[in-house]
Request: fold
Amino acid sequence: MDKDSRNFTELKKDILSAFSADTNKLCRWFAMLLFGIYLLSGIYIVKINEVGLVKRFGKVIRENVESGIHYRMPWPIDEVDKVRIKEVMRTELSFWSDKAGEDILPSYCVTGDKNIVHLKIVVNYQIKGPKSFLYEIYNSKKILENSMYSAMVDAISKVNVDDILTIAKHRFQQDTMRLCQERLNFLRTGLEIKSVELKNIEPPSKVLPMFKDVVNAREDASTMIHDAESYSNKIIPNAQAEAAKTISQAQAYKIKKIAYAQGETNKFLKILEEYKKAEDITEFRLHVETLEKVMPKAKKYITGSDTNDKEIANTKFFINSP
Reply:
């Protein structure tokens, strides 16, 4: 019995020893696996429209990590924040109310000539400074909205109500965008305004028909002015072309006449020079040349029935003009 008990005790020790060795080995492998998983947890992916910012113990050590697969030290050593910088975000702001039948609605702006208008705008913006956007301010969207409201009030206070309802809309949009961006840059929000669109603008409802009449009249006047300018732009070039043509023809006629007169003068001077050399001969030659030109055009008429010297005496010559 003692022998069997001793054998059992030795067997038990052998089993425990073998099991302990396997357990230690398994624990080591399991610990290595966990450590490997922990190291692999440092792998992160930045999408195409994003950038990453790596923080080590809360301090930013890498900015603008581009899209792709990257590695950082596992948590809690390093952390990664991602920001969508290529996404254009959109928000609508307004000084407007859907209530009707009121002279002065609860939400309005005052123009430069102290008139009341209600308006709606749409703002498109992007994140350009991820670090400032994430860590340097709180509630960026709220700051954007407040800055835009302030910019709208400043911009509309510099224009008259007739202009903002007609021709000054584009200028108002540009001024609002510029003023808002200056405030956002000063506050280091990391936001960039891409565009500001004036969606709607109206005076109070009770005076809206009168304002519409004014706007329609201005538009009609602008249309008439545009038509008149178009007609002017069409007629003036034609008139200028006709004037240039007439002047060119007159100049050509002038040159032709001067050249002809100079030719006749030179011809006369040559004849005069020959005439002075031999007056009788020259006079006779001129007389002959004149007859050569005139006689072929002369017609002879014979009157009477007698064919004698009297008939010849009664012969008359008539020169027909060419």
